[in-house]
Design brief:
Oligomer: single chain
Helix content: 25-40%
Strand order of the largest sheet: 1-2-6-9-10-11-12-13
Number of helices: 14
Order of helices and strands: EHHEEEEHEHEEHEHHHHHEHEHEHEH
Distance between the termini: 7 Å
Radius of gyration: 21 Å
Strand content: 15-25%
Structural class: alpha/beta
Shape: globular
Length: 386
């Protein structure tokens, strides 16, 4: 069973032992960040630093001429990943015997929202989410598609894994995040993710909804949750709060918007890629879910991409709808393996066995660069027994 671990370029560059150490875990592939959001990351074994602060979303390689004259364009990394950081790390990982695939974060970019606020998701209260580009806007869709192509097809990469290719919402864990005081639940989070930018307001109109009336209905639906009422959860909870017909109309607009962006971006990457280049999407099988693993229809997405990377932090149950949708697809179960970040490397062997029973064909490990030595030992032992 093929295993890959996620890696940042700064985990490798400047550490002559990193690539060999990663290969020694027993993985066959490194999924290496080529475009990534802002973060503060630990590097517990690096000889030159222990903390890397990526101040804003950036690409980790030099961009090309496709961006000249465009308002929306990727940002270069600062001193956390200078020059062609991706290329430098990829060469070392390849020399250590690992396949390298690009890891590309797309619709998650706080600096884009800060500098171009009109690109951001706007909730029913008029609050902007600068970390969440609205994927309905034509200029944003063009930017995300071109970024997917450029970042995915880095020299030496045999495939790509596209993260955040869909709607983002309130769930962000923003800097010093303090949004958890009221438990909104699944339904409340959906309502807080509904966008009311100009493009989305027109989109709701195409579904027979008046945008102002819809925003008022969303605010009214959320009011009991702000007061502490329980969220019934799931889509039934959304229908109860908003009304079944209205809820269905909002979902129709959002599902179609995400679906067509995914089709366009994957098609563009495929057209520019060499034969055999693998394209996977980070995905959740519930279409109204948002975030780094946006909701998709399993049958549709597996008719577009070669496979999916599925979050398994809460167990492997999300794998089943994808495994049923297409037998020959890559279904990669993504396990957190950093014990101090909620991962469970000590149960990895059993977790992988269960995931395989539910249809997983590969595994992903998050994240070799962040893990302690003890976590790495546990990973090494689990993979040796597969």
């Amino acid at each position: 069973m093929k295993a890959s671990t996620f890696v940042y370029p700064w985990d490798v560059n400047g550490d002559p032992e990193a690539a060999t150490r990663i290969a020694g875990l027993g993985v066959q592939q490194a999924t290496l960040a080529a475009a990534y959001h802002s973060t503060r990351a630990l590097t517990p074994r690096h000889p030159r630093h222990r903390i890397v602060t990526a101040e804003h979303a950036s690409v980790l390689y030099p961009t090309d001429a496709r961006w000249e004259g465009r308002a929306l364009r990727p940002y270069a990394a600062g001193d956390w990943a200078p020059g062609d950081a991706f290329g430098e790390a990829a060469a070392q990982l390849s020399e250590a015997g690992l396949d390298v695939h690009t890891w590309v974060v797309l619709a998650h970019n706080s600096r884009l929202g800060a500098e171009h606020p009109d690109t951001s998701v706007v909730n029913a209260y008029g609050d902007r989410y600068p970390w969440a580009p609205c994927i309905a806007q034509p200029a944003t869709r063009a930017y995300l598609t071109d970024l997917a192509v450029e970042a995915a097809l880095r020299p030496g990469a045999a495939g790509t894994e596209l993260e955040s290719l869909g709607w983002y919402g309130l769930q962000h864990l923003h800097a010093h995040d303090k949004t958890g005081g009221v438990p909104l639940g699944d339904a409340g989070m959906y309502l807080m993710a509904l966008c009311f930018c100009g493009t989305c307001r027109e989109g709701y109109g195409e579904q027979g909804l008046d945008a102002d009336s819809l925003a008022a209905a969303v605010r009214a639906a959320l009011e009991p949750l702000w007061q502490g009422a329980p969220d019934d959860g799931g889509w039934a909870g959304v229908e109860k709060l908003l009304g079944a017909g209205t809820a269905a109309a909002t979902r129709a607009w959002r599902d179609e918007t995400a679906r067509t962006l995914q089709e366009t971006a994957v098609r563009a990457v495929r057209a520019a890629a060499p034969e055999g280049f693998q394209i996977l999407l980070h995905a959740d099988p519930v279409t109204y879910h948002v975030g780094a693993n946006p909701g998709v229809d399993p049958e549709h997405i597996l008719s577009v991409a070669d496979g999916v990377v599925v979050p398994c932090a809460g167990g492997p149950g999300l794998l089943t709808p994808f495994a049923r949708a297409r037998e020959d697809a890559v279904i990669a179960a993504n396990f957190p393996v950093v014990s101090q970040m909620g991962g469970s490397p000590s149960t990895l062997a059993a977790d992988v066995a269960r995931a395989r029973e539910l249809g997983a064909t590969e595994i992903r490990l998050y994240h070799a660069g962040l893990a302690s030595d003890g976590d790495l030992d546990a990973i090494r032992g689990a993979l040796a027994g597969l």
